[in-house]
Every structure is written in structure tokens, then in C-alpha cells.
């Protein structure tokens, strides 16, 4: 075989690989376009969270600027989508006061939420002698004397959308639920042993 023939075969092989690569890229672009089109048509709506109640077992601040708390909350999530499911992968919930985290994060169980489904969680949030800034100790004492303390229940995690057999990548889920705890009036809650259960039913702010 002459050098000319070898060069001709090499050129044919390069053309074949270029055509193969072009077909592969066209296929990928088509698949991505179809996924995008389906996504735009279905338009996934973020889940709706409601903080239903909070049962306070302990909530005490010491003179050493340390806060000890033990709170059980009930929080629900509703999937408003007709044709889109939601995977909750790694989702933490914790309490904060004036922007400072005051409990350890509690990991919620991973789960799948079908179309129009409602999921209810009832996690415990613990914080044992958590150091807080001195000005927060002053603010917290003032709030307790006034009778009402605003605690933010926050959820931070990752979710995935499911459309038919397609599952999206992970999206960041951030939820903030205001909990107004009326410490000044024990009659505003329900006694549960040594704890007080407060019915809240508060809408939460959700970002995805």
C-alpha cells in the first residue's frame, strides 16, 4: 500500500470520527432541549411549608450567656405540583434567635414526596448551654419579660425534582418559619407533662 493510500485512509477515519462526534453532540443537545421544554411546560412550583406547633420542654438562658433549649416542632410540607415529585435528600432543621443558631441541626429522614402529597415531620431541636452573644442575652431576657419570643425555625437542605423517569440535579432548599412563643401566658399553650405545646400554624418562607 502506498503512502498516498495510507493518507487517504487516515483522512476517511478522521471524517468518520468527526461525523460520529457531531451525531453524538446533536443527540445530547436534542435530549437537553427536550428536558428543558418539558421543564418549562410543567414549571415546578416550590413546596409549601407550614409550622404547625412547637412544644417547649426547656428554654433557659444563664447569666453566663448560655442558652439551653429543648423544643419539639411539627412542620408539614405540601407538594403543589400535579406532575412533579420531590426527593428530599439531606435536610437539616434547627432553631435560631436574631440570626444566631441556638440548637444543633437535626437531620430529617430522606423521603420522596409525590404529586400533591403532604409530609409531616416532628423533630426535636436540642441546644445544651449554647454560647450566645451578650447583647442577645439582654434581648432574650427583655423578650421573655415582654411575654413573647420570636424563634426562627430554619430548614437547610437539598432536593431533587422528578418528572416522569427524569430526575433533576440537586437544588438548595432554604425554609424559614417564624415561631412566636408566648412565654408570658401559659394559658396560650397546652400542658404536655412539664412542657407547653403552642399551636402556631405559621406559613414559612421558602427559597429553592
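^ C-alpha cells above, recovered residues below v
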Amino acid at each position: 500500500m502506498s503512502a498516498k493510500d495510507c493518507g487517504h485512509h487516515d483522512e476517511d477515519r478522521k471524517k468518520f470520527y468527526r461525523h460520529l462526534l457531531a451525531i453524538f453532540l446533536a443527540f445530547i443537545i436534542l435530549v437537553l432541549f427536550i428536558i428543558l421544554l418539558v421543564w418549562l411546560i410543567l414549571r415546578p412550583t416550590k413546596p409549601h411549608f407550614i409550622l404547625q406547633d412547637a412544644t417547649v420542654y426547656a428554654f433557659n438562658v444563664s447569666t453566663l450567656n448560655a442558652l439551653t433549649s429543648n423544643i419539639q416542632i411539627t412542620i408539614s410540607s405540601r407538594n403543589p405540583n400535579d406532575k412533579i415529585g420531590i426527593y428530599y435528600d439531606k435536610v437539616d432543621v434547627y432553631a435560631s434567635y436574631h440570626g444566631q443558631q441556638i440548637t444543633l441541626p437535626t437531620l430529617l429522614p430522606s423521603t420522596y414526596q409525590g404529586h400533591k402529597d403532604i409530609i409531616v415531620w416532628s423533630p426535636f431541636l436540642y441546644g445544651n448551654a449554647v454560647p450566645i452573644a451578650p447583647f442577645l442575652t439582654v434581648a432574650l431576657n427583655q423578650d421573655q419579660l415582654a411575654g413573647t419570643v420570636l424563634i426562627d425555625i430554619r430548614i437547610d437542605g437539598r432536593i431533587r425534582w422528578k418528572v416522569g423517569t427524569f430526575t433533576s440535579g440537586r437544588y438548595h432548599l432554604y425554609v424559614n418559619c417564624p415561631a412566636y412563643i408566648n412565654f408570658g401566658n401559659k394559658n396560650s399553650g397546652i400542658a404536655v407533662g412539664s412542657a407547653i405545646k403552642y399551636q402556631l400554624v405559621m406559613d414559612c418562607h421558602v427559597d429553592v
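The helical segments are 3-42, 134-146.
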